[in-house]
Amino acid sequence: MKSQFVIQDLSVGYFSEEHFLNDTCKSVPLMENAQAFDSYTEAQAVIDSIGLGEYCTVVEIPTYDVHYNSDTASNNEGFGASFEYCKNYIEMWNGSNHSYFEDYKGGTVSIVCSDGVAVHEEEIKKTTPDQIKQFLTERRGIVSINEIEKRAGIPRYTLQKFVNGEKYRILTPEQIEKVLPVLGRIGFKPS
Predict the structure, then answer these.
(1) The sheet that has 64-69: what strands, in order across it?
(2) Cβ count near 85 (within 10 Å)
(3) Mind listing the pLDDT tens digit for each residue in 64-96?
(4) DSSP class of residue 33?
């Protein structure tokens, strides 16, 4: 994972991609909206080519990645993204079987800065059929079995029997994986 670089206008803010495309002197106040370069040399070459060396400087901005850890193994996504992107990624997929979350349930997921420092860490959640059943039971009338059937592709008969707690009616791991994104949109969070 590597850092990115932006050009900072020392008097106003940061240069946006629009500045370079339209050859205007428009800058943006927030670093997040600035045009990012993969290397210091590339950003400095742009400054040199437009002759603004005394008014601009190259600033390194950190990037972040998502790392998974257990007692016996570790892995990472390989992102070079913003902290917010990584945080949203974890919030969206923690507790599911997406990517490495399935392999590291019970372990930890963290956001690691390009300098190697972990800046956020939380436990990888395990989703159980009982949690889904409780969530659906508590929200009868709010959660439509028909909507879940349509969006997750799980037969209505199976869902109704599951929610009603009928003997031998469980959701398979594949069905849980299909239903989680649908339930997530209406507030379900695994514990």
Answers:
(1) 74-76, 64-69, 108-113, 118-123
(2) 15
(3) 999 999 999 999 999 988 888 999 999 888 887
(4) G
